[in-house]
Design goal:
Number of helices: 4
Protein name: DUF8215 domain-containing protein
Strand content: under 5%
Radius of gyration: 18 Å
InterPro entries: DUF8215
Low-confidence stretches: 1-5
Number of domains: 1
Keywords: Membrane, Transmembrane, Transmembrane helix
Order of helices and strands: HHHH
Organism: Halapricum hydrolyticum
Mean pLDDT: 87
Length: 151
Amino acid sequence: MGSLTYIEKSWFGRVLHDVVYTYADVTVFSLPMLLYVWVTQPFVDRALTAPALVTWITMVGVATLIRGGWIRPLGTETLGWVSGRYALLPVRVAYYNLTLIVAVFGGLAVEGLVGRTGLAVAWATCVGIGATLVFPTVVDITYHRFAQWRR
């Protein structure tokens, strides 16, 4: 009858596919916080945009590296990025937006306490890297706990 054709992508094609996938994943579920930053920026006296963008881009970059298999997530043996199950959508929305909140407002707080410019962006980078490396572990734990609860 029919046959399936298997065409392997070049390294660039794989990287591009991983970047687009993780960009869509992180961006769509981070929209509440990203829209908050975009809408309130003209009305606040602190720069929310730089730490938010740095966190967002860092999350996409680290997720791409995890999805492509170049780095391993922390605390789990599961390789690759998190599956797109419907049950995980609330976890994604909550986790990505909380990560952005901690990165943006935590960075501004650290910058205000220390008094050095640029610390908010450095804080945002660290939070984005750490939170994204731990995200697959959080999803594993959450998914397995809810799977036991549903039985």
